[in-house]
Amino acid sequence: MGRLGLTEILVIVGIVILLFGGKKIPELMKGLGSGIKEFKNAAKDDQSAPAKKQEEETKE
């Protein structure tokens, strides 16, 4: 349970194509990719923010 085989993946892809059509899928993937990119950038900025704050405090 929890593992997807080739048949299940093909059925899911077929349903997605039927629902959204062939022209809409690249737009959806582009939006998904840009969303992931923004999320990674935000996470990276959050990790570097505490380090910058510590550097500013030690300079004072």
Automatic annotation (TrEMBL):
It comes from the Bacteria. This is Sec-independent protein translocase protein TatA. The chain crosses the membrane at residues 6-22. Its main location: membrane. The keyword Transmembrane helix applies. Forms a complex with TatC. The lineage of its organism: Bacteria, Pseudomonadati, Bacteroidota, Flavobacteriia, Flavobacteriales. Belongs to the TatA/E family. The keyword Ion transport does not apply. Part of the twin-arginine translocation (Tat) system that transports large folded proteins containing a characteristic twin-arginine motif in their signal peptide across membranes. TatA could form the protein-conducting channel of the Tat system. It holds the Pfam family TatA_B_E. Keywords: Cell membrane, Membrane, Protein transport, Translocation, Transmembrane, Transmembrane helix, Transport. The gene is tatA.
